[in-house]
Amino acid sequence: MKKKPLKLQVLFLFIFCLLVVLFMDKSFGFQGGHLPVRTEDSENPVEKISAAPSGIKEAMGIYFFIAWMWLSIFILVYILRLKIKEADRLFKLKFFSSKKT
Amino acid sequence: MTVKSIQTWLDERFGISNIVQLLRDKTVPQHKHSLWYYSGSIILVLFAIQVLTGFILLLYYKPVLDQANESIARIMTEVPLGWIIRSVHSWAASFLIAVLFIHLLSIWITKSYRKPRELTWMSGVFLLAISLAFGFTGYLLPWDELSLSATKVGTDIPSSLPIAGVWITRLLRGGEDVTGDTLTRFFGLHVSVLPLFIFFLLTLHIYLIQKHGVSRPLVAESKKEDLASLPFWPNFVYREMVVWFVLVGVVLTLAVFVPASLGKQADLMAPAPEGIRPEWYFLFLFQTLKLFPPKIILFTGDTVAVFLILLCCILFFFLPLIDNKPLEKKGKVITILAYAFILYAVSMTIWSLL
């Protein structure tokens, strides 16, 4: 039981490393969208479309949603930790053993 | 009608309680390498995200030469939250490929592909190949300058092969050069042919995992010793759900704060822009191709390079048949080769960036 927090830490580290690698991908411009910006020509003035919220209202809505989502994730993870403990306890008691049903 | 009565009604018809009991009886071993077991379900979650976001993008995307780039621009500027959907699709694709590589490398290092899991490995390699094909075909769909040039380079690679090489390139492009026909072909492959293959292979892969059970460390398998294990449902699934929630959060956050943008519409007559690079997961191959000289004895450098890469792919696919040692053998050479591959791929990718 003592090893569980360590496992979770390793998982988070794993996700973090992935993010670092993938962030490099985006920030160093491998994606089609991240082109080096050139001078505009008269025929086609649109060089690059950056993805962004369309207005301050949408931006605030999205940032609020992200904050709410992370709060929900933390709560869900906390609940799941409790559920894991309970499921492990029931497993040790052989509560769901197939012989029982 | 109460919830209980609905459950009973469904159970009588679908036998849900039997399925739940089956999942409870299925166990997942617990040991120092258990961490790798999570990568399989992460791939499934990312695949589900891809299907969902891909379907939404499909509603607005137009795979026609003069409308492809414009339709993506419309998704990003006019469709409500369209830019987030596209960004999630782009980020989840990168995560998917990264986790697929990690998943296969973990199996390679732990040698879980050995008897009786040879076909599980082979179907997994096929799944990686199809995922890479998804990435390659999807890269052209925005139809911007960089995606056009990268596709020209990518589809030109098979042409260096003798006999069928030029034919393969023509088949991929739908002609001599990358045009609107290529876009239509790539779109067709991306949304119909490849999903069909991946669905079939995923079903086969999951069936084989159910059939042979989750692999255990070689020492435990060879001695047939009992390891501490957890029921798949609900103990292991709860643990996996923690990872899924965090993963979805990370993908969404990245999609918002580091969104995928769109380049200028591709012009078939324009010269190739500077800094042509494929997606990050092809960079090590891209750099490898650059290393070869123009001529090696009687053959061109590209031909030799493509042959060598193909040979490595074939060896990778048939790894369980090459390393068919008994379970108690550690197979140090195979482990060293796996680490050498990681080192090579990472260093080549970094070199390509510099």
How do the helices and strands line up, and which of them pair or pack?
The complex is a heterodimer of chains A (101) and B (354).
Chain A: H1 4-27, E1 48-49, H2 56-92
Chain B: H1 3-14, H2 16-25, E1 27-29, H3 37-60, H4 68-77, H5 82-110, H6 118-140, H7 145-156, H8 165-173, H9 180-212, H10 218-223, E2 229-231, H11 232-257, E3 262-263, H12 283-291, E4 295-296, E5 299-300, H13 301-317, H14 319-322, H15 332-353
Antiparallel strand pairs in B: 1-2, 4-5
Helix pairs in contact in B: 3-5, 3-11, 4-5, 5-6, 5-11, 5-15, 6-7, 6-9, 12-15
Number of strand elements of chain A: 1
Biggest β-sheet of chain B, characterized? 2 strands, antiparallel
Strand residues, percent of chain B: under 5%
Fraction of residues in H or I helices of chain B: 55-70%
Number of helices of chain B: 15
Question: What is the first-to-last residue Cα distance of chain B?
Answer: 66 Å
Low-confidence stretches of chain B: none
* Order of secondary-structure elements of chain A: HEH
List the total number of helices of chain A. 2
Net shape of chain B: globular
**Beta-strand content of chain A:** under 5%
Task: Summarize this entry quickly.
Chain A has 101 residues and is mostly helical. Chain A has helices at residues 4-27, 56-92; one strand at 48-49. Chain B has helices spanning 3-14, 16-25, 37-60, 68-77, 82-110, 118-140, 145-156, 165-173, 180-212, 218-223, 232-257, 283-291, 301-317, 319-322, 332-353, and strands spanning 27-29, 229-231, 262-263, 295-296, 299-300.
Description of the structure:
The complex is a heterodimer of chains A (101) and B (354). Chain A is 60% helix and 2% strand. Chain A is built from two helices and one strand; from the N terminus they run H-E-H. With 101 residues, chain A is an all-alpha fold. Mean pLDDT of chain A is 71; it is low at 25-42. Chain B is mainly α and 354 residues long. Chain B contains 15 helices and five strands. Chain B has a two-stranded antiparallel sheet. A two-stranded antiparallel ribbon of chain B has the order 4-5. The longest helix of chain B is centred in the middle third of the chain and has 33 residues, at 180-212. The model of chain B has no long low-confidence stretch (mean pLDDT 91). Chains A and B meet through helix 1, strand 1 and helix 2 of A and helix 2, helix 4, helix 5, helix 7 and helix 11 of B. Strand 1 (48-49) of chain A pairs antiparallel with strand 3 of chain B, so a sheet runs across the interface.
